[in-house]
């Protein structure tokens, strides 16, 4: 097993070394050595030094799997295995994934490449891999029982096909997939165009990640795999804010972000400060006549979207799922609405008896960030993340696109918080406030009240008692 750290020092060195003439075909092992990566950091792009050239992508809190060339065939080795994924600093989950991580490594190939993928199953049960979105022989499609026998525990299977269509794809099991995807088994696949493509523009930065969700009780380590809708951890690439790296770009970069949804619900993904176009799906590049500007694009289950924009506004721009429950971290469910109830003293007493007891604050949930409720081990607060102006009060599917004039080409490092030009930050008004002008007489409204109505009814809006279910 080779450490990713070693080969990153000279990106692609493994592929180069193995493909070099000094290694004879006889000496070449039948199966490429698997590369394992156990850190959750965003790794530098893997620049190819064999095969056709392309502009590599950057996987958010992830990495790209190196390959070797064997008689013109690109060979990869995926190992399906239990992994420990740090979902945010201080919070680890026991998942299943590939080559040390969940999601597995990104696979990058070029249109027309002949690809051979060895899949070793180190899970306690059988598995398979389906190559979502690919044109390939039916027997390589990876549906256990339908197109192949499942890969038994301890065995290695080989998939081989030509990457016929350029685009944005993913891979995941098609064997006991409810369990295996709930446990984190999935990965990204990019097929780069072999030449200049009329519908695929070159970009300066190309980010990829998968949307996935888990149900892990506070204090626990392993996802509950029977959960269908009521997940409590909403993740980009099995990371939750504030554990998700920012996407750091140079001002006026053309930026592409690709994401695929392997959760059980849709996610409207929203970018601040810029408008983008959807340039592709897992069906390939979109035709130009179908492109219009958006700031939010909804990704249904099993879909992928690639968006593109010109990063021409400097700043720290939020990028997140627009479902507000999906920018929250693990909470106990059935949390009662406590707005208007001062229970802070009581809550402290209750936690002496019930350690996992969590309630929302009397003025809303923002109170929770100051309530200093004791949390069980291996649990992250519901909303966390300190920004330059205080608590960001976000969790889950949230990160930041950092646009900087002085970010160097090829530098993906975090430039720190944006330094706002003087006079460009919202500020407190300290003058005299005028009295509110309220409509005094209903008769002057454009929609007069019904004359017959004798009594006003007041309603209080509250969440159903089932609380968090069904979103
Ligand atoms: Cu969402």
TrEMBL record:
GO molecular function: copper ion binding; oxidoreductase activity
Domain Plastocyanin-like: residue ranges: 90-194, 221-336
GO cellular-component term (any): periplasmic space
Matching InterPro entries: Cu-oxidase-like_N, Cu-oxidase_C, Cu-oxidase_fam, Cu_oxidase_Cu_BS, Cupredoxin, TAT_signal
The keyword Oxidoreductase is annotated on this UniProt entry: yes
Signal peptide boundaries: 1-29
PROSITE patterns recorded: MULTICOPPER_OXIDASE2 (PS00080), TAT (PS51318)
Basic residues bias spans: 460-471
Keywords for the protein's UniProt record, in alphabetical order: Copper, Metal-binding, Oxidoreductase, Signal
Region (Disordered): 439-471
Descriptive protein name: Copper oxidase
Lineage: Bacteria, Pseudomonadati, Pseudomonadota, Betaproteobacteria, Burkholderiales
């Amino acid at each position: 097993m080779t450490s990713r750290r070693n080969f990153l020092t000279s990106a692609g060195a493994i592929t180069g070394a193995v493909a070099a003439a000094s290694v004879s075909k006889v000496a070449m092992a039948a199966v490429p050595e698997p590369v394992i990566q156990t850190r959750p950091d965003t790794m530098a792009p893997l620049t190819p030094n064999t095969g056709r050239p392309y502009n590599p992508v950057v996987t958010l809190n992830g990495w790209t799997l190196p390959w070797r060339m064997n008689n013109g065939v690109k060979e990869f080795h995926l190992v399906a295995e239990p992994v420990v994924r740090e979902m945010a600093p201080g919070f680890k989950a026991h998942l299943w994934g590939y080559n040390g991580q969940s999601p597995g490594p990104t696979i990058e190939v070029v249109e027309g490449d002949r690809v051979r993928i060895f899949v070793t199953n180190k899970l306690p049960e059988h598995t398979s891999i389906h190559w979502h979105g690919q044109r390939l022989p039916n027997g390589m499609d990876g549906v256990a029982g339908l197109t192949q026998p499942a890969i038994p525990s301890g065995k290695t299977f080989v998939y081989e096909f030509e990457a016929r269509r350029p685009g944005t794809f993913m891979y995941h099991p098609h064997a006991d997939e409810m369990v295996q995807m709930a446990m984190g088994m999935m990965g990204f696949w990019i097929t780069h165009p072999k030449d200049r493509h009329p519908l695929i523009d070159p970009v300066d930065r190309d980010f990829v990640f998968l949307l996935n969700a888990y149900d892990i009780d506070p204090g626990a380590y392993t996802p509950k795999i029977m959960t269908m809708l009521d997940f409590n951890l909403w993740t980009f690439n099995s990371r939750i804010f504030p554990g998700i790296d920012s996407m750091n770009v140079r001002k006026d970069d053309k930026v592409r972000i690709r994401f695929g949804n392997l959760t059980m619900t849709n996610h409207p993904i929203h970018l601040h400060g810029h408008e983008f176009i959807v340039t592709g799906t897992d069906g390939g590049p979109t035709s130009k006549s179908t492109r219009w500007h958006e700031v939010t694009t909804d990704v249904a289950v099993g879909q992928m979207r690639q968006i593109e924009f010109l990063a021409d506004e400097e700043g720290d721009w939020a990028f997140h799922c627009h479902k507000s429950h999906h920018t929250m971290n693990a909470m106990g469910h059935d949390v009662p609405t406590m707005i208007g109830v001062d229970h802070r003293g009581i809550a402290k007493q209750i936690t002496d008896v019930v350690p996992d007891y969590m309630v929302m604050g009397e003025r809303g949930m923002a109170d929770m960030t100051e309530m200093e409720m004791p949390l069980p081990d291996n649990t992250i607060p519901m909303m966390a993340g300190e920004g330059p102006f205080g608590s960001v009060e976000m969790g889950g599917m949230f990160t930041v696109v950092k646009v900087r004039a002085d970010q160097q080409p090829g530098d993906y490092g975090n430039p720190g918080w944006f330094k706002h030009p003087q006079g460009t930050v919202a500020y407190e008004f300290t003058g005299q406030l005028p009295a509110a002008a309220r409509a005094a007489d209903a008769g002057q409204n454009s929609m007069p009240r019904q004359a017959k109505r004798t009594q006003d009814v007041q309603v209080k809006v509250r969440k159903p008692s089932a609380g968090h279910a069904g979103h």
